[in-house]
Every structure is written in C-alpha cells, then in structure tokens.
Design goal:
The protein is an alpha+beta fold. It has 10 helices and 10 strands. The strands form 2 sheets. An 8-stranded antiparallel sheet has the order 3-2-1-10-9-8-7-6, sandwiched between helices. A two-stranded antiparallel sheet has the order 4-5.
C-alpha cells in the first residue's frame, strides 16, 4: 500500500510540475507498428472520404517497419511501394537537407548575405536584400510572402525585415535555390541529386519535371472525377518540362522518404553540431503553432516546452523527446511526415485526392496510426474550419 501511495504521489507531482502526459499510442516519442486491424480501419476511412490513392509508413528505430497502400495510382493500376506521390511543401525538407549539407561542407555560410549570389529584380532597390541569409529562409523569417502571385501587384517584396519575425514563405526557398545554384555554378536539381537523393538512396524521387519518367505517379483528380496531368492544375497550367520548385511538387515514394527521415534522424550528412542547430527552435510560428497550449485548455497533444521552425523542419521539443517534420497541401494532395528523436520512430502519410476530401480524412487516419501525434491537433482544427 505504501508503494502504491508513493507512485500516486509521484504521478501527481509530475502533473503539477507540468510534465508531459504519456500518450495513448505508446511511450512518449514512440510509434507502435500497426497490425492488420489498423490497415482495415484506414481503408474504411479512405473509402468513406473517397480518397483516390494513399501511402502510409511507420518507421521504428530508424527503419521502415510497416507500410500500407490504398487505391490506384492510375486507372487499373493498384498503388504499391513504387507509387510516387506529389508531397507539396514536404519538398522543403529535402531542399533544407541539401542546404545543411552544403553548409557543413564549408561551401556556404548560414549567415552570409544571399545577395552575394542572387538578387531578384523585384527587390533590387530594397536595402533589406542585403540582410537576407540562408538561415532566415530555412526558419521562415525571410520577410517574403508565401508567393508573390498572392500580392495584388504580383511582385516579390519584403513585407517585413529579414529576421524580424516568422512568415511562411515558399518564395524564400526559391530565392535560396537560385543563390546556391549561382554560387556553385550548377543547376539546383543537380545539387539536390548529388547531395541528398543519391547518397540517401532516393532513386524514385524527383525534384525536377521529367515527362519521360512519369510512370508510377499518383494521378491528380478533381472533384468532378477528371484526371489531370502530373504537375498540372485544373485551370490548365502545367509545370514546364525541366523546371523545378524548391518549395513544392517533389515526387517521392513512401520507402524513399522513409530513408530520408532515417538519415535526418541519424544526421548522416553533417556533424552533430549542425544537427543540433537544425533541431533548435529558431522561430516561433505564433498562431500557426502545432499545439495551441494557451488557447486550448485541454490540448489534444502534450504541450511542448518550445515549438516552431528549426532549419527547414517544424520542431516541437517536449524535453524527453522532440519531433521534426513537415506537412504539405495542394489542390489534389495532403501529406505529413515526421520523426521522433531520440527514438528514430516516425510516420508518413501521403494522400492523393481533391483537397477538401483529404482535409476530412487526414486527422482520422493520423489518429489511427499515431494517436499522440503533435500534428493531429492542427489537422483537426483545419478539418473543423473546412467542414460546412
């Protein structure tokens, strides 16, 4: 009895001190390997929300321990481990890893002005261009809008001083890619291939458009059921052959991205000091935080000690463990992938269907695979906001 009372007192003391609660899915920072019943539950959810194609992965101790596929990559062709998904903004993690490896090799400094290598004509007259660095791009404090075409004048501009505050920006990643390509005298997709894709073994992953190699790609389909070309949008625009984006449209498979996350976890491409810098929260996302600990009296995930952007990855630090990851969303896809450290466990969810359907399905499938996911609360909020 005395032992039981002591255990109870210790538990109460931990709660009073604000210690993170033990997640329902298993020990903190771990992910259980799903069984057949989980796959059946996932398939039921995907059918309910009319998801066209899906790929899932669970990483245990840095290795892909489980994967599951649903639907067809194209008419009559079932999805499998070879199916490539457009993962939207998850592209930024591969680009970030490229930059960190280049920095660790001494070919670029995180804090040197990018203006030495590239200045976009739209900001050529703005003195703030001289302050912009790779670090500010990677932690989303570049000062740029997400995309210039969201502005009324459709021009790139600094909306606040670089380094002054958070503001998510795909333009920043495009800017950094141009600067790095100019500095190294090499096309940016080639830099990504030799620095990350080839060393990691991501042989089925592509950052540049190659229309001769579009086999095994989950075809985007709109709400009317019309299939559109890979790299194309319903309004008729298609990305030109040979082009690339440093912020969007990466094609990858579940096994390839699992290898990537495992390499990120191990910090294979750089020294331990660089990995620590990558994992350190460098910018606060404010209202866009993963877990709203202040606004939600009963947050659905444990409250992190700190959370925000590190270098290219969202980071939530829970003290005993932390999570690094990223999401991606576009008109026909929804994706999220992350890894816990120090366990090396992780989750990959790639959904291919019209965005309204994927937003409804994502919190349900993520809740089945990893009920304690720090990304789960955000997807539930987004789902509520898009539910009529």
């Amino acid at each position: 009895m005395r032992h039981l009372m002591m255990v109870a007192l210790l538990a109460l003391a931990a709660c009073a001190a604000g210690d993170v609660r033990e997640p329902e899915g298993g020990p903190a920072g771990r992910v259980r390997v799903p069984g057949p019943a989980v796959a059946a539950r996932l398939d039921a959810i995907l059918r309910e929300h009319r998801i066209i194609t899906a790929g899932f992965g669970v990483i245990r101790n840095g290795e892909l321990a489980w994967s599951h596929y649903f639907g067809e990559e194209s008419a009559g062709v079932p999805a499998d481990a070879a199916t490539r998904f457009n993962v939207a903004s998850i592209t930024k993690t591969v680009v970030a890893e490229t930059v960190l490896r280049i920095v660790d090799d001494g070919e670029l400094d995180l804090d040197e002005p990018l203006a030495r290598y590239w200045v976009d004509p739209d900001v050529a007259g703005d003195p703030r261009r001289l302050a912009l660095t790779a670090r500010q791009v990677l932690d989303h404090t570049s000062g740029f809008p997400n995309w210039r075409f969201f502005r009324s004048d459709r021009k790139l501009a600094f909306e606040h001083a670089p380094g002054s505050r958070y503001g998510y920006s795909g333009e920043g990643f495009e800017y950094l890619a141009r600067a790095l390509a100019n500095k190294l005298g090499e096309p940016f997709p080639d830099i990504v291939r030799r620095t990350v894709l080839e060393p990691v073994g991501m042989h089925d992953t592509a950052i540049a458009v190659d229309r001769s190699r579009l086999q095994h790609v989950a075809r985007p389909v709109d709400e009317a059921g019309k299939a559109h070309g890979v790299y194309c949008r319903p309004e008729g625009w298609c990305r030109p052959d040979g082009s690339y984006s440093a912020a969007d449209d990466l094609l990858t498979t579940v096994p390839d991205y699992a290898r990537f996350l495992a390499d990120v976890h191990r910090g294979t491409g750089y020294a331990a000091a660089m990995a620590r810098e990558r994992d350190r929260v460098q910018s606060d996302r404010g209202d866009e935080r993963l877990v709203d600990c202040a606004g939600d009296p009963r947050p659905q995930a444990p409250c992190p000690h700190t959370q925000g952007y590190g270098l290219g990855f969202e980071v939530a630090d829970f003290g005993r463990y932390r999570v690094l990851g990223h999401g991606g969303s576009d008109w026909s896809e929804q994706s999220v992938a992350y890894v816990y450290r120090p366990s090396g466990d992780g989750v990959i969810v790639f959904l291919n269907a019209p965005n309204a359907r994927t937003l409804q399905a994502m919190p349900e499938v993520l809740g089945v695979i990893d009920p304690s996911s720090p990304f789960l609360a955000r997807y539930r909020i987004w789902r509520a906001a898009h539910t009529p």
